[in-house]
Amino acid sequence: MQAKYVRVSTYEQKPDRQTLNFKSKIFIDKCSGSIPFAERTEAKKLLKLIDNNSIKVVYVHSIDRLGRNTIDVLQTIQGLTAKGVNVISEKEGLQTLLPNGDENPTAKLIINILASVAEMERNHILERQKEGIAIKKTNGGYKGRKVGTKKKNKEILKKYKSVSKSLERQPFSKLSLRNIAELNKVSLGTVQRVKNIMKAEGVL
């Protein structure tokens, strides 16, 4: 069975353009693209059917319907592909699986490009942080952490929010801890630390 996933940003926007001529089951979320795919109301229903092997093909108007956060989009696509679901993006003319069920090398290349973009975005953020610290040091306003202090659990979870989100979605995405570390550009030890804290806090 196939389905189509549609997202519009506001309740005033009409999804007609994305649903035109599609005869199978349609899931429509009216929400911001910043909300992770696995946390959207209709997306949850779609994922449940996928887990029950009821859906094997998912159409989207364009990749950005899955999300605006590059890492979330990557994990969503990889999670669906791992379950044998072919994601077909009409605008980009992209499908993640070939007719024989093998991974589409073109789609894989595009996903790798998305991963590179995510890495550049993160490096840009880190560079800006370094520049800000350097300016504060020059002006005498940067004190740094006191020797012997430890960040509280909540501070660590806040700092590595994307890692936390990845771990929450792990039952769906089936990504290993090493995969999560690579996607979020952190060490494996950091992922393990965040996971332990989440367990201790009762989040996992």
Give unreliable regions as ranges. none
Q: What is the H/E string?
A: EHEHEHEEHHHHHH
Which CATH first-tier class of the largest domain would you pick? Alpha Beta
How much helix, percentage-wise, in residues? 40-55%
Task: Please give a structural write-up.
This protein has helices at residues 16-19, 41-51, 70-82, 105-138, 153-159, 161-168, 170-173, 177-184, 188-200; strands spanning 2-8, 25-30, 57-60, 86-89, 94-95. It is an alpha/beta fold. It folds into two domains: 2-105, Resolvase, N-terminal catalytic domain (Rossmann fold), CATH 3.40.50.1390; 146-204. It has a five-stranded mixed beta sheet with strand order 2-1-3-4-5, covered by helices on one side. The mean pLDDT is 82.
Structure characteristics:
alpha/beta; 50% helix; 204 residues; Rossmann fold; globular
Short description:
This protein is of the alpha/beta class and 204 residues long.
Helices and strands in order, then pairings?
Elements: E1 2-8, H1 16-19, E2 25-30, H2 41-51, E3 57-60, H3 70-82, E4 86-89, E5 94-95, H4 105-138, H5 153-159, H6 161-168, H7 170-173, H8 177-184, H9 188-200
Parallel strand pairs: 1-2, 1-3, 3-4
Antiparallel strand pairs: 4-5
Helix pairs in contact: 5-6, 6-8, 8-9
